[in-house]
Amino acid sequence: MQLLSYIIQQTQLSSKSVENTISLLNESSTIPFISRYRKEMTGNLDEVQIGDILKYKEIFEALEKRKKAILKALEEQNVLTDELTQKVTSSVDLIALEDLYLPFKKKRKTKAETARLQGLEPLAKMMMSQRVNNLEATASKFTSNEVETIENALEGARFIIAEWINERTDIRNNIRQQIERFATISTKEVKTKTNDTSTALSTSSKAQKFKDYFDWNESLKNIPSHRLLAILRAEKEGFIRVKIEIDDEKAIQNMANRIIRSQNDCADQIQLAIQDAYKRLLYPSLSNEALSIAKEKADEDAIIVFSKNLKQLLLGAPLGEKRILAIDPGFRSGCKIVCLNEQGDLEHNETIFPHAPQNQMIEAIKKISFLADAHKIDAIAIGNGTASRETEQFVKKIQFKNPVDVFVVSEAGASIYSASKIARDEFPNYDVTVRGSVSIGRRLQDPLAELVKIDAKSIGVGQYQHDVDQTKLKKSLDTVVESCVNTIGININTASESLLSYVSGIGPKIAQNIITYRNENGSFTSRTAIKKVPSLGAKAFEQAAGFLRIKNAKNPLDDSAVHPENYALVDKIAKDNKKNVSDFIGNKELLVKIPLKNYISSTVGLPTLEDIVKELEKPGADPRAKAKMFSFDKNIKTIEDLRIGQLLPGIVNNITNFGCFVNIGIKESGLIHVSNLSETFVKDVSAIVALQQQIIAKVIEVDVDRKRIQLALVK
What is the pTM of this model? Predict the structure, then answer.
């Protein structure tokens, strides 16, 4: 099967769309660039569809690479026939391919290999022919110094037969089908581990979160991804043992029906070999394979959830270019304060001690009031960690001279950033507490610009992110970040190196060169000037230019998503209408009169023209919502304050396949199970709630001992 037909089969997309997209990907075009600026070529495919084409392209190429390696290995062994070549080249999945290669794969020393070296393979062949009537007499001819008895000879032959059975594709597939349809996953508690109280932090208390799985049994094909990942984590930590089970007797009988054709002594020996092959070779291997496939699927589900959450978080509402006073709250160590200007630059930092044990509340109020006035503060950002509620309450008591909005901001990952090389490079003369406070303030100004500096896994908006395939997770999350950055567009004159590195066509090296060039030559005044950056060649410029913004540029298109390759077209449209380009900016009445069909050409179609008009209407517009203030219930300070039936304001802080977690202003987040999100069936949690959404939830269950809170969505 060829690449094109394989991808079409997997995606059900048109041949032209797939072919052109493959061509663009082979030219090193990025997904954001292709989806935004090559709509005519792809048939208006979106980023998800282009991403699917790329995924299946990589799967196909990996399969082809493996085929070449196997064919080479078979050729070196002098076992490659035309029939085998045809089977290998026509394989459409990796499992079938590896099954074909299994009989020829170099093996470590096995029982079967030992038996072969003892000269027992001819006996095994005779037994498999099932035509030997006096097997004992035949076997006696194969005894030797190494094979002392007839039973030793028969056993060795059975080892060889068991290996042959293990290598039969039809038998392997039959057992796979039984596992796929009927297998159960069961667990048992490891009591010596769960009852261990010898460590400072009791192992038994750590095991409590896995208590539900101490004795569990469920269909493997139906187990939800989050539950499988939880079970596998519990097994990894030693609290449970996991087994995959099917009806062994039925499986062995199915094998016998395929192999045994006689009623003589050979049949009895082959039956023993079948049992050995199943228990020692086939089932351990294929049950592990099935669990691995289930784990891979669970990983994919978890990565999809994490990616959706990350996208919502990165596209969270920015406050914009406002002057921020940010507070990283704390009790004994005090509250770390920083003042930031509109660009997020640090202007001032110090520590106040409004809480116990110092209780310097009056001094703290005076200090914040003074700083808010002196630095013309527009808003205050308070981290949502320890002492957040107490800090928010005292800040809201302050009578400011000018209006100051107060926001509570997620601290997730701030400590990771503050200790990172990026933070040290930005603030070499300040400690981690100052850097953490700066991160909190900048998150309020622009979540995307700040969060790209942090390893996405550390942001805490996924399920079992440390248990899934880390390579796939990183690749998926990088794709999400790239998509978000390019969806918004980046001011090249203020963007950090981290932010620039995610721009289509840029990458870390060119991002560093942009920063260096900017520091040495000042701000870019036009998109054309970007070409002067070292290593930023024609291809990189093509991929990046449309996503980079130049504020207050001479050409207004430089601060829009209109690609420079279409500037001449916009100029022509303006000239035809006897206007300047600037006359069209924001002028909807003028824009709707443009006869777009008159400008369709072999390279520019209606989708691109419509995008240009849309962009001229609101050039460089930020599609994100604006940040909104929020307050928790001031009477709820700990889990002990909760009562069944209470209605509480909350913020969705994590979304999973089984529901969403809600911050209600205390240490423990509450869970709204998928069954409590709506009165109707909910297939996709993200269709009901969004990350950072402000909601009202009802308390329906509180387990103080296990620190668990069950909620129901009200609105």
Answer: 0.85
